[in-house]
Structures are given as C-alpha cells and as structure tokens.
Fold this sequence. Notes:
Layout: H1 5-16, H2 22-29, H3 33-45, E1 65-73, H4 78-88, E2 94-99, E3 106-112, H5 115-124, E4 132-139
Antiparallel strand pairs: 1-3, 1-4, 2-3
Amino acid sequence: MELDSVDRRILRALQRTGRISNAELSEKVNLSPSACHRRVQRLEAEGFIKNYVALLDARKLNCPTTVFVEITLSGQADEVLEAFEREVARVPDVLECHLMAGTADYLLKVVAQDTEDFARIHRQYLARLPGVQGMQSSFALRTVFKTTALPV
C-alpha cells in the first residue's frame, strides 16, 4: 500500500496526539469524519499503525537514569543469539535491545532509579544473560531531546 499525503498527515497527527478524537483528526487533515475513520482503520489493518500507547514520565515513576549497555557475545551462532534474545526480553528494566553491526553485538537501553539500582539490575539480570563475553555501560547525563515520532 502506498501512503498519500492525507495518510501522512493522519500519521503525523496521531503520533503527536494518539487520543485525538476522530472529529478533531478529520478537521486537522481536512477530511470528512467517515472518510478519516476509514483511512485510520486501513492504516491500522495494513500495519502502519501498530498500537496506541501512553508515554509515561520516567522521573515521576522513579526511573530517571538511562543507561546504554553494549553487549559482546562469545559467538555469533544462531543458538547463542537466540538464547540471548530470549532472556534479555525478560529483563523488566530493558526498554530496547538492538542487534548491532560494529564493535558490540547488542545495544540495550536500560532504565534505573540511580547507579545503585543499575548495579542491582546488572547483578540480578545482565551478568546472568547467556553467551555474554563483555559489557560496557554508559550513563546518560541528560536527555537533550527524545521522540517516538517517525519522520512521515
């Protein structure tokens, strides 16, 4: 399915305000409410819209520390990668896990209360992940900007 300019306007608006009413959205994108609703349903059905979520404030939830962890595995065999990916997906403090090209095999985005809490996460979870040969952690000092919006 090809996206036209109206589809792109709908996607941009929904990325900014996912709880916008269909009436407001149709006004923003210059469509009738019924046509707008059909377009949104089609974008959902085609998989362009995966889900609707609430973005939470990490500071208010006492998880203000972001740590990026580079993981190097002992090997690249499928079973090593699969075992690591299966177990890392179970770590509640890991927000993202990316298979990388470069010096590290994986890059994790982890949230913690503070350095002590990260030490707990490291001991309890990260150090026990299968196939890990090396780990390098970098603490974010400040988030300059953050978005979940894709360029549409």
